[in-house]
């Protein structure tokens, strides 16, 4: 377990913030699952908290992707979570259903895991100048594993979801807003004040009314766990395919997993792997 890389700040009893601080580029791996699980359990059980904001302390990165240097058994050997799903999709499903309003404040790249956490949140707000969202996995011969095939079509429609997933390209803040991938794209200088103002406003309301309203919306919009389960299995299976291994090796040869142009322009480099 890595200490102090997922930071929980209780601004007030009703308004919490979860900040990802995994420099240099906020890669999320199996070592971070216990910390996030502890926070999600607290969100589920705390009687006072009403709003949680997810953000990042690392310049240029909200959360990038899963840790491809971790041993496979570090992920596959973990027991299922409370929902019966594997641990990462379990945590995302529980964030969606928690009796708390969750907001993703996206500044920097939300690619792979970052996009999946944002999709699991109730609302998403993006920096117009600095936010980039993507599900890049198909371009590397992989299948996304954290629930985007179940969530994206409900959010942005089938055609646009397939465009995001199958093009494996970067989506900037303005296009993400136009597609409905995020609620709003705001000037970077205004993002924090807007999100904090919204969070404090919601936190001032009656929790019972918030929870009941969210539960009724969830009943009409959230995917069942059975729809999400096959995605993680497909992701793990794809990791072992020669095509995926070849493409991931090409990415590592270009500088994947470290600061530099590949991680900053992952959509571009994904598009070069077949050449």
Instruction: Find the structural class using helix and strand composition.
Output: alpha/beta
Multimerization status: single chain
User: How many individual β-strands?
Assistant: 10
Estimate the helix proportion, in percent: 40-55%
Along the chain, the helix and strand elements come as: EEHEEHHEEHEEHHEHEHHHHHH
| CATH class type | Alpha Beta
Mean pLDDT: 96
Poorly predicted ranges = none
Number of domains: 1
Q: Determine the N-to-C terminus distance.
A: 39 Å
Shape: globular
Strand content: 15-25%
Q: Assign the CATH topology.
A: 2-enoyl-CoA Hydratase, Chain A, domain 1
CATH superfamily: 2-enoyl-CoA Hydratase, Chain A, domain 1
In short:
With 275 residues, this protein is of the alpha/beta class. Helix content is 48%, strand content 15%.
Describe this structure in words.
The protein has 275 residues and is of the alpha/beta class. It has a single domain, classed as 2-enoyl-CoA Hydratase, Chain A, domain 1. 48% of the residues lie in helices and 15% in strands. It is built from 13 helices and ten strands. It has helices at residues 33-45, 72-76, 87-97, 113-120, 148-156, 158-167, 173-179, 188-203, 207-221, 225-239, 242-254, 261-264, 266-270, and strands spanning 6-10, 15-20, 51-56, 61-63, 101-106, 109-111, 123-127, 132-134, 171-172, 184-186. The strands form two sheets. A six-stranded mixed β-sheet has the order 1-2-3-5-7-10, sandwiched between helices. Strand 2, helix 1 and strand 3 form a beta-alpha-beta unit. Helix 1 (33-45) packs parallel to helix 3 and helix 5 crosses helix 6 (158-167). The longest helix is centred in the last third of the chain and has 16 residues, at 188-203.
């Amino acid at each position: 377990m890595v200490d102090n890389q997922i930071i929980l700040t209780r601004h007030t009893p009703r308004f919490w913030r979860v900040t990802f601080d995994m420099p240099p580029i906020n890669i999320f791996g199996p070592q971070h699952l216990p910390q996030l699980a502890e926070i999600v359990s607290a969100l589920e059980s705390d009687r006072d908290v009403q709003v949680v904001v997810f953000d990042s302390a690392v310049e240029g990165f909200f959360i990038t992707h899963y840790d491809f240097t971790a041993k496979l058994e570090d992920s596959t050997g973990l027991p299922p979570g409370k929902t019966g799903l594997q641990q990462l999709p379990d945590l995302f499903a529980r964030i969606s259903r928690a009796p708390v309003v969750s907001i993703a404040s996206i500044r920097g790249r939300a690619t792979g895991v970052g996009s999946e956490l944002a999709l699991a949140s109730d609302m998403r707000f993006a920096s117009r100048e600095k936010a980039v969202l993507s599900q890049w996995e198909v371009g590397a011969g992989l299948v996304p594993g954290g629930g985007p095939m179940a969530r994206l079509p409900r959010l942005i429609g089938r055609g646009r979801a397939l465009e995001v997933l199958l093009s494996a390209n970067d989506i900037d803040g303005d296009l993400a807003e136009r597609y409905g991938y995020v609620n709003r794209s705001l000037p970077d200088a205004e993002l924090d004040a807007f999100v904090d103002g919204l969070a404090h406003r919601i936190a001032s309301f009656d929790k019972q009314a918030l929870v009941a309203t969210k539960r009724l919306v969830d009943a009409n919009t959230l995917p069942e766990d059975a729809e999400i389960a096959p995605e993680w299995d497909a992701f793990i299976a794809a990791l072992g395919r020669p095509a995926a291994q070849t493409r991931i090796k090409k990415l590592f040869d270009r500088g994947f997993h470290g600061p530099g142009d590949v991680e900053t322009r992952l959509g571009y480099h994904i598009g070069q792997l077949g050449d």
